[in-house]
Design a protein that fits this description.
Structural class of chain A: mainly alpha
Shape of chain B: globular
Helix content of chain A: 55-70%
Number of strands of chain A: 0
Helix content of chain B: 25-40%
Chains: A mainly alpha (334), B alpha+beta (578), C mainly alpha (331)
Radius of gyration of chain A: 22 Å
Largest sheet of chain A: none
Number of helices of chain B: 18
Strand content of chain B: 15-25%
Shape of chain A: globular
Oligomer: heterotrimer
Largest interface: A-C, 63 and 66 residues
Number of helices of chain A: 12
Strand content of chain A: under 5%
Chain lengths: 334, 578, 331
C-alpha cells in the first residue's frame, strides 16, 4: 500500500521493500511518462505546482542540496574522495587538535565548540558529511543496482532460479538487520570499505524482492507478450521494456534507502564497529562524546543533529517523490 | 604474572586499569600520594606483622584516605564494575574477578610494587632466605577456612594447600600464572607438620617477592582444588569474605558475605574483628555513563572517573572523598626490529624524538599524567628520574628529521603503522590523531593501517608489521617492560615483539642479569642502568605517558587504602559511617 | 488455510537451514586464531593448544568433506557445524566464553527483559500511533494533520542512539535523576521502579515505530475512504461518523496490524542500541556484547534464535493477513 512505513532504522528500512512487494498490487506509474511539452515556462509552472503541493518535500530537497554542497566543497579535495573543491571551506583540518583547547564551548572561532582533544566540531561535522553521504550513495546505488538486476532476472526467468533467489532473499530478510551489519563488519574488520560492503549486502535482498514483484507483474503485461511475439530476444525485452518501469520504483525506494543507509552507518559508528578513527564519522563522534567524561554536550548534540537533519531531508524528499509517483493519492492533497 | 594474565586482559581490550578502577584501588608512586596528613617519613619503617594477624602499618608513600573516627562494623558496600566475571576460579579467571579474589582467598605473602616497604604477611608469618634461590615460609596456624556451603571443612590452611595450589597451576596450561610457576618455581616442599613451606627457584630471581603474592596465584583449600568446578560461582577459603552458591547472578551482580572467622583483627581498634563490612555487593554495569549515574544517585559507593575534569565536575556541590593515585597503564609505540628501517639506530631514535609526551599529558589527560621512560614512572625506583628521562628522550622533531636524513638520505620516509581499530577505550582513540600528527611533523609519512583486533593480534605476534601503536599496556613490574626489549620477548618464546636485544646481545645479557639480582635496591639500580644502555642504542619500544586515576568515594566510606596498588585489596579496614 | 500454513512452515524451515549455513560460514571466515586471541600475548604453545582443544577448534568444519583426488564424499559425525546444529535441535545451545554461562540460561534471564521492553514499546506505539493516524486522516490538511505528519517524519529520522543519550544525560546533569541501573527491577516487586527503568527506553523506541504506524494508519485510512464502497455507503445517507467508524476503520487497520506484527518481530530480536544505552540486560545487549568480544559460537546460536522468532512472527503476520483477506490465501 502507498505510504507504508519509511526507513527509520535499518531493520524497518529493509522491510519497506517487503511490505511494498507483498502489498502493492500491480504496476507502478512511470513518473517520466508525462507527455513531452518541452517549454521552459511549462517546466517552471509544473515545478511550482509540485513545490506548492509538497512543501515538505521541497524543504527536504533543500536540506539534501545543502549537505551535498557541504560534502562536495567542505573538505579539501583528495583522490577517491567525494569533495571536488580544492581547498575546501572547512575552517580546520580533520585532525587539527591544536586548533583549540579540549571541550571548549561555542565561540566565534569554534561555532560548535571543540571535542575532547581540541578538534573543531564544525569542521569535523563537515568532514563527516562527506563520509556519510559517500558511504550512503555508494552502498545504496550499488545495492540497488545489484538488487534490481537480481530482481529482474529472478522475476522474469521464473522457475528454479526464481525459487532459489526468493528463498535466499527470505533468509537474508530473516536476519535481523543491524545484527547482520555488525557481524559483517566485525568479521571483516571495521573500515570504510567493509561498512559500505555490509550496508550494500543489507540493501540487496529488499530491493531484489520489490523489483522481482514488479518484474513479475510487468512480465504478464500485454505489450511484453506482443514484443515476444514479434521475436524480441530476452535481453532486449528486459532492458527496453521491463527495466524502465521497474526503474521508477527503484528510484522511489532509493531515497528511502539513502536515509536508512545514513542511519546504518551512524549506528555502526556509535556501537564502535563503524569507520574508525581518525575519520569523522558522525555516529562515532556521538559515541566518543558520550564516552568522555564529563560529557561535552556540543560534541554529542551537533553530530547527532546532522544525522537527524540529513535523514529527515531524504525522508521528506522520498515522501514527496512517492506522492508524485502515485496519482491515486495526489487527489488527497487537495 | 604480567606475561600471560595481564596480556589476556589487554587482549580482551579490558585494561587492567578498568578492572582495578572498578575495585577503586589504584596505586601510587612512592611518595606521590594525595592524602590528608600522611606524608612519607623515613622513620616510619615498614613493620612486618606478627602471627597475631594485626593490621600492617601505613608505610612510607602509602596511607589511608578519609581516616579517623572509630570504626563501626556492619553495612553493605556497593561497587559497580563494567566487566562481568567469567569465573570465580582465581587461577584461571581472565576478567573482572581479579579485583575481588584477594577478598576471598589468601596469598602466601604480598609485597607492593608501588611501595617497597609494604609487607603483607598472609598465610606466612615470617620467612627465611638461606640463599638466593631458597625461600622458607613459616605459616600461621590460625587462618581458618570460613563457613561455606561447598562442603570444605573449616580447618586451618596449611602448607598442603599451598603445594596443591602451585601444583595445580603448574599442570594447568589455562591458568594465568602458568608461565610464572613453570619458569620460576622449581619445587614446593611441605614440612611434615605442614607448617613450613620451602620454595626454590631454579636461579636467582629478583621479582620473586613481587610475583609470589599476586592475585592470580592465591592459595585455595586443597579439597576445593579437587572439585574445581565449584569455584566457578562460589568460593571457600580463608579470606575475609565468601561467595556463597546462588549469590552470583550472571551479568547482574555478585554478593560477597563476611567471613566471621577471618583471622585478622584491627590492632588499632581493640582487636576488632575484620572485615568491618558485612557484605560487598558488586553490580555489573557495562556502560560507563550508567556507572557514573549509579554513583551520583548513591547506588554505588565508589566510582573511578575517567579524568580530572570528570572528577571535578562530579565533586562540585558534593563532598566525596577523591583519591588521586598513579596507575600502571600506558599506550606504547612498538617497532619491529626485523624490518627496515628500524634496524638503524638513528631511525629508532628519531621516533623517540618525534614524540611530544607533554601533548598527550595536556590534551588527553588535562595535565594529570607524566611522561614515561622505558619503565613507566609509577614503578618508583625502577624508573629513571624524570629529568634524566627528559634528557635521554628529548622532544626534537627537527633532530628527528636530521636523523632521518642522515640515515636514509631523504627528508621524509614512508612507514606503515598499524593499530587495532575497534577500541572501546576512548583514550586510545584520543592518542591516535595526536600521535599521527607528531609522526607526520617529524618526517614520517604515515601509511595508516587500522585493523580488526584479531588481525592486529595475529600480525603483532607474527611480527608482520612495521610499527604499531599498541593498546593499553598494564605492567605491574619492570620485568615485563625490560623483557619487551629482550630478543626473546616476554614469554621467552618469540611469540611477541622482539626488542632491541635482537640487535645487541649485550643488552640481552644486561636484561638477564637484572632479572637475577635479588636485592631490591640493587635490582632497581641495575634496571635503571639497563635503560640507559638501551637509550644509547635506541629503544624498540616506547611507552608514552601514564596517567593518574581519580577515584571518588561517598562521604561515608572511611579508611580507604591508597598508594598500594592491588596490594591494598588485602587490607580490610574500610568501614561505612552510616 | 491449513495448506497455506503448512506450506509456509516448510518454507520457514528451509530458510532456517539456509540461515544456519550462512551465519556459520560468515563467522568462520574470521582471520586470526581465536585460541591465540583468548590465550593472550606471551602464551606458550601448549597453552594455545590446550585452548584450541577446549574450544573444539581441532575438529573438521563441516560434516561433508571431499576427498582430494577421488570423488568420494566423507561424512564426519564429529564436525563443528554438525555438532552445533545437533545442539540447536536438541536444546544444547552451548556456553558463552565471555560470561561462562550456558546460553540457554542467559536466554531465560534475558528474554523477559526484551519482552517487557517490546510490550511497553508496542503499547506506546499503539496508543500514540493509531489515534493520531486516524485523527490525521479525518482532519486531513488541517494544522493538526501537518503537525502530526511533521512529528512523525521527525520521529523516523532522528537516530535513536542520539535521543537515548540525551534522555539519559540531561536529567542527570540538571536534576540528578537517574533510573535504577545495573539490576532489573521486577514489575511485580516494584512497579514504579520497573516503569522508571523500562519507560524511557520504550519511549525512545516508540518514537520510530509510532511514527511509522501513524503514517501507515493515516494513509491506509485515506485510501480506504476513497474506495468505491465507501461512496456507496455515503450515498445511502449514513452519517459521516458512522461511515468512518463502521466501515473504514476495520479495513484500514488490517495493514496496520500486520506492520505492528513486523515491529514486534524486530523488537523481540532485541533492540541492540537502546538496550546498550539504558543498560538493560536483554537479548540485544547479549548478542552485541558476545559479538563485540568475538564469542562467535554464541552469536551464531543467537542469530538462529532471533531468526526463528522473526520467521515465526512473520508467519503469524502473513496468516493473519491471509485470514483477513481471502484473496491472498490462494495466490
Amino acid at each position: 500500500m502507498r505510504g507504508s512505513t519509511h526507513a527509520s532504522d535499518t531493520h524497518e528500512g529493509l522491510n519497506v521493500a517487503k511490505e511494498i512487494a507483498v502489498r502493492t498490487p500491480g504496476a507502478v506509474t512511470d513518473i517520466f511518462a508525462e507527455p513531452e511539452r518541452g517549454r521552459a515556462a511549462e517546466f517552471f509552472r509544473t515545478s511550482w505546482r509540485l513545490i506548492r503541493r509538497n512543501p515538505l518535500g521541497f524543504f527536504g530537497l533543500l536540506i539534501i542540496v545543502f549537505f551535498a554542497i557541504v560534502a562536495l566543497a567542505g573538505p579539501p579535495a583528495k583522490p577517491f574522495g567525494l569533495s571536488i573543491f580544492g581547498p575546501g571551506f572547512a575552517p580546520y583540518g580533520l585532525n587539527d587538535f591544536r586548533a583549540g583547547q579540549p571541550n571548549e564551548g561555542l565561540s566565534l572561532a569554534h561555532p560548535f565548540g571543540t571535542d575532547n582533544i581540541g578538534r573543531d566540531i564544525l569542521s569535523r561535522d563537515i568532514y563527516g558529511a562527506e563520509i556519510s553521504l559517500s558511504v550512503a550513495f555508494i552502498s545504496v546505488i550499488g545495492g540497488a543496482a545489484l538488487g534490481t538486476v537480481f530482481g529482474i532476472v529472478s522475476g522474469y526467468t521464473g522457475g528454479i532460479t526464481d525459487s532459489i533467489t526468493q528463498r535466499l532473499v527470505d533468509t537474508a530478510i530473516a536476519f535481523p538487520g543491524l545484527l547482520l551489519l555488525l557481524i559483517i563488519v566485525q568479521v571483516l574488520g571495521p573500515s570504510e570499505k567493509t561498512v559500505i560492503f555490509a550496508i550494500m549486502l543489507g540493501i540487496i535482498p529488499g530491493v531484489t524482492r520489490v523489483v522481482r514483484g514488479a518484474a513479475l507483474s510487468e512480465k504478464n503485461n500485454q505489450y511484453i507478450e506482443a514484443a515476444r511475439a514479434v521475436g524480441a530476444s530476452t535481453p532486449r525485452v528486459l532492458f527496453r521494456h521491463i527495466l524502465p518501469n521497474v526503474l521508477a520504483l527503484a528510484i522511489v525506494i532509493m531515497t528511502t534507502l539513502l536515509g536508512a543507509a545514513i542511519l546504518a552507518e551512524a549506528s555502526l559508528g556509535f556501537l564502535g564497529l563503524g569507520i574508525p578513527e581518525p575519520a569523522a564519522s558522525w555516529g562515532r563522534d556521538v559515541s566518543a562524546a558520550r564516552n568522555s567524561q564529563p560529557v561535552h554536550v556540543p560534541a554529542a548534540i551537533f553530530p547527532g543533529a546532522a544525522i537527524a537533519l540529513t535523514v529527515l531531508g531524504f525522508n521528506m524528499l522520498g515522501d514527496a517523490i512517492r506522492d508524485i509517483a502515485d496519482p491515486r493519492l495526489r487527489g488527497s492533497q487537495s | 604474572m604480567a606475561g600471560s594474565y595481564w596480556d589476556k586482559i589487554a587482549a580482551q581490550r579490558v585494561s587492567r586499569r578498568r578492572v582495578l578502577q572498578s575495585a577503586g584501588v589504584a596505586g601510587a608512586a612512592a611518595g606521590a600520594v594525595w592524602l590528608v596528613g600522611c606524608k612519607s617519613s623515613s622513620n616510619n619503617g615498614g613493620k612486618t606483622s606478627t602471627s597475631g594477624g594485626g593490621t600492617p602499618e601505613a608505610t612510607a608513600g602509602a596511607g589511608f584516605a578519609n581516616g579517623g573516627g572509630t570504626p563501626k562494623a556492619g553495612g553493605r558496600y556497593n561497587v559497580g564494575t563494567s566487566v562481568d566475571f567469567d569465573t570465580f576460579d582465581p587461577h584461571i579467571s581472565i576478567a573482572g574477578g581479579v579485583a575481588y579474589f584477594p577478598r576471598l582467598y589468601n596469598a602466601v605473602i604480598n609485597r607492593s610494587p608501588r611501595d617497597a616497604s609494604f609487607k603483607f604477611d598472609d598465610l606466612a608469618s615470617s620467612l627465611e632466605q638461606p640463599d638466593n634461590t631458597t625461600y622458607i615460609f613459616h605459616l600461621r596456624d590460625n587462618v581458618m577456612v570460613g563457613p561455606n556451603k561447598l562442603g570444605i571443612p573449616e580447618r586451618a590452611m596449611d602448607g598442603n594447600d599451598i603445594k596443591a595450589s602451585f601444583d595445580r597451576i603448574k599442570n594447568l596450561p589455562q591458568s594465568n600464572a602458568y608461565a610464572f610457576v613453570g619458569e620460576w618455581i622449581d619445587s614446593v616442599d611441605v614440612s611434615a607438620d605442614a607448617k613450613t613451606v620451602t620454595i626454590k627457584t631454579p636461579k636467582p630471581y629478583g621479582y620473586f617477592f613481587l610475583r609470589i603474592g599476586s592475585a592470580i596465584n592465591l592459595i585455595v583449600p586443597k579439597e576445593l582444588i579437587d572439585q574445581a568446578d565449584k569455584m566457578k560461582n562460589a568460593s571457600a577459603g580463608g579470606g575475609p569474605f565468601v561467595l556463597n552458591p546462588g549469590d552470583y547472578t550472571e551479568g547482574q551482580n555478585a554478593l560477597l558475605t563476611k567471613n566471621p572467622t577471618y583471622y585478622r583483627k584491627d590492632d588499632k581498634n581493640n582487636n576488632a574483628q575484620l572485615p568491618y563490612l558485612d557484605e560487598m555487593f558488586i553490580k555489573i554495569i557495562s556502560d560507563r555513563s550508567a556507572l557514573q549515574t549509579a554513583f551520583k544517585s548513591q547506588q554505588t559507593d565508589q566510582y573511578t572517573a575517567q579524568n580530572v575534569d570528570e572528577s571535578n565536575s562530579l565533586q562540585s556541590g558534593n563532598n566525596y572523598t577523591i583519591v588521586r593515585d598513579s596507575t600502571n597503564t600506558f599506550i606504547a609505540v612498538t617497532l619491529n626490529p626485523t624490518k627496515d628501517p628500524w634496524k638503524d639506530d638513528r631511525m629508532r631514535k628519531a621516533v623517540g624524538m618525534a614524540l611530544n609526551r607533554d601533548e598527550y599529558v595536556q590534551r588527553v589527560y588535562k595535565g594529570e599524567a607524566k611522561p614515561n621512560g622505558i619503565v613507566h614512572w609509577s614503578l618508583g625506583d625502577y624508573a629513571l628520574p624524570p629529568d634524566e628521562v627528559a634528557k635521554l628522550q628529548p622532544y626534537d622533531p627537527k633532530g628527528a628529521r636530521d636523523l632521518i636524513k642522515a640515515a636514509t638520505g631523504k627528508d621524509t620516509v614512508d612507514v606503515t603503522f598499524m593499530w587495532p581499530a575497534d577500541s572501546i577505550i576512548e583514550e586510545h582513540n584520543q592518542h591516535l590523531p595526536i600521535w599521527l600528527q607528531q609522526m607526520q611533523d617529524a618526517g614520517f609519512n604515515v601509511n595508516k593501517d587500522p585493523q580488526a583486533f584479531t588481525t592486529w593480534l595475529d600480525n603483532y605476534t607474527n611480527l608482520k608489521y612495521d610499527a604499531s601503536l599498541a593498546l593499553n599496556q598494564v605492567y605491574e613490574y619492570a620485568e615485563f617492560e625490560m623483557d619487551f626489549e629482550h630478543s626473546e620477548g616476554p614469554a621467552r618464546n618469540h611469540i611477541y615483539t622482539i626488542g632491541v636485544g635482537a640487535l645487541y646481545p649485550e643488552i640481552d645479557a644486561a636484561i638477564d642479569e637484572s632479572k637475577g639480582i635479588t636485592d631490591p635496591e640493587q635490582q632497581a639500580a641495575k634496571v635503571r642502568d639497563v635503560q640507559r644502555q638501551i637509550y644509547d642504542k635506541g629503544p624498540m619500544f616506547y611507552p608514552l605517558v601514564t596517567p593518574f586515576s581519580f577515584t571518588l568515594y561517598q562521604p561515608y566510606v572511611k579508611n580507604i587504602p591508597t598508594g598500594l596498588g592491588a596490594s591494598g585489596l588485602f587490607l580490610n579496614t574500610t568501614w561505612l559511617d552510616k | 488455510m491449513q495448506r497455506f500454513i503448512a506450506r509456509r512452515l516448510i518454507i520457514g524451515v528451509v530458510i532456517l537451514f539456509f540461515l544456519s549455513v550462512t551465519v556459520f560460514l560468515l563467522l568462520h571466515i574470521v582471520p586470526g586464531d581465536p585460541a591465540k586471541q583468548r590465550c593472550g600475548l606471551g602464551c606458550k604453545s601448549e597453552q594455545i593448544a590446550a585452548i584450541r582443544h577446549e574450544l573444539g577448534l581441532d575438529k573438521p568444519m563441516f560434516p561433508i568433506t571431499f576427498d582430494g583426488d577421488a570423488p568420494i564424499i566423507h561424512f564426519n559425525g564429529d564436525s563443528q557445524y554438525g555438532n552445533w546444529l545437533k545442539g540447536l535441535v536438541t536444546g544444547d545451545l552451548g556456553t558463552s566464553q565471555y560470561y561462562h554461562e550456558p546460553v540457554s540460561r542467559a536466554i531465560k534471564h534475558r528474554f523477559p527483559v526484551t519482552f517487557e521492553l517490546m510490550v511497553l514499546t508496542m503499547i506506546f506505539t499503539i496508543v500514540i500511533g493509531i489515534p493520531f493516524g486516524i485523527l490525521s486522516a479525518i482532519f486531513r490538511n488541517s494544522p493538526v494533520d501537518y503537525a502530526a505528519r511533521v512529528s512523525a517524519i521527525l520521529g523516523l529520522s532522528v537516530p535513536n542512539f542520539w535521543v537515548g543519550t540525551l534522555v539519559l544525560t540531561i536529567p542527570v546533569a540538571y536534576w540528578g535523576y537517574a533510573p535504577p541501573l545495573g539490576r532489573t527491577v521486577s514489575f511485580t516487586h516494584d512497579p514504579v521502579g520497573n516503569l522508571q527503568q523500562f519507560g524511557p527506553p520504550a519511549m525512545v523506541l516508540a518514537l520510530a515505530s509510532a511514527a511509522g504506524v501513524m503514517r501507515l494508519a493515516r494513509s491506509s485510512l485515506l485510501e480506504v475512504m476513497r474506495q468505491d464502497y465507501m461512496r456507496t455507503a455515503r450515498a445511502k445517507g449514513l452519517g459521516e461518523r458512522i461511515v468512518i467508524l463502521r466501515h473504514a476503520m476495520k479495513n484500514s487497520l488490517i495493514p496496520v496490524v500486520t506492520v505492528l506484527g513486523l515491529q514486534m518481530a524486530g523488537l523481540l530480536g532485541g533492540a541492540i542500541i537502546v538496550e546498550q544505552i539504558f543498560v538493560l540486560p536483554g537479548i540485544g545487549q547479549y548478542v552485541f556484547i558476545e559479538l563485540f568480544n568475538k564469542d562467535f559460537e554464541v552469536v551464531q546460536t543467537m542469530t538462529m534464535y532471533i531468526g526463528a522468532i522473526v520467521i515465526l512472527l512473520n508467519l503469524a503476520v502473513d496468516v493473519s493477513y491471509a485470514w483477513f483477506d481471502p484473496r491472498i490465501r490462494y495466490s
